[in-house]
Design goal:
By secondary structure, the chain is α/β, with parallel strands linked by helices. It has a single domain, classed as Rossmann fold, CATH 3.40.50. 23% of the residues lie in helices and 26% in strands. The chain has five helices and eleven strands. The strands form two sheets. A nine-stranded mixed sheet has the order 2-1-3-4-11-10-9-6-7, sandwiched between helices. A two-stranded antiparallel sheet has the order 5-8. The chain is globular, with a radius of gyration of 15 Å. The termini are close together. The structure holds glutamine. Glutamine binds next to strand 7. Pfam families: GATase_5.
Length: 222
């Protein structure tokens, strides 16, 4: 199993993501955002958290124009798996790989704390190790995590079971309490909480580790 983790100027969770992926058996290769192609043989591309390009314009808007994002879109178009965490989720919406937008938090404050989440979909390769409806605890760290989309998109996400995680106590104003969604083929996940920050007991929890274990399990089964 091999994963590429894209590094943008201002990424700050790329190493943490690499550690979490290695824990479950992935070989991890860092990929600089100026590359125009991805390394051969990747099973997964990770877009990490951080403040790409200083969060200027909108979070993720400049990163979405980096050369590597064309290659990531082509990879997803071929059915590749892509995981975008926090700033990575923002980049996925800015590239159009996931619908909707992450707006400024409702109370216009940066929020950094563990939050309770409800698992909404256990069908995806990212969530199969969780129970449907299970409450888990994973940290958030963002100022632009307020998920927004038009009514039709929200109805489609809900109707197609694509809401992977919701907030049990909505911290940021996200519509439908959305914390994470998957693409229509289930292979692209964007989420604002940081599972890589809950992947080791020393970090205060392991609820995030099961997301990486789900992925490892689905590749092992393939
Ligand atoms: N931890 C992160 O990835 C931060 C995400 C983003 N730049 C925000 O603050 O909303």
């Amino acid at each position: 199993m091999k994963a590429g983790v894209v590094v943008f100027p201002g990424s700050n969770c790329d190493r943490d993501l690499a550690v979490a992926l290695r824990q479950v058996g992935f070989e991890v290769v860092p990929v600089w955002h100026k590359e125009t192609t991805l390394p051969d043989g990747l099973d997964l591309v990770g877009l990490p958290g951080g403040f790409s390009f200083g969060d200027y314009l909108r979070c993720g808007a400049i990163a979405a124009r980096s050369p590597i994002c064309r290659a990531v879109a082509a990879f997803a178009g071929r059915g590749g798996h892509v995981l975008g965490i926090c700033n990575g989720f923002q980049i996925l919406t800015e590239t159009g790989l996931l619908p909707g937008a992450l707006m400024r938090n409702q109370r216009i404050k940066y929020i950094c704390r563990p939050v309770p989440l409800i698992v909404g979909n256990t069908e995806s390769p990212f969530t199969s190790a969780y129970e449907q409806g299970e409450e888990i605890r994973i940290p958030i760290a963002h100022h632009d995590g307020n998920y927004s989309a038009d009514a039709e998109t929200l109805a489609r996400l809900r109707g197609e079971g694509r809401v992977a995680f919701t907030y049990a106590e909505n911290p940021n104003g996200s519509l439908l309490d959305i914390a994470g969604i998957v693409s229509n083929n289930g292979r692209v996940l964007g989420l604002m909480p940081h599972p890589e920050r809950a992947a080791d007991p020393a970090l205060g929890g392991t609820d995030g580790r099961r997301l990486f274990a789900s992925l490892a399990g689905s590749f092992a089964a393939a």
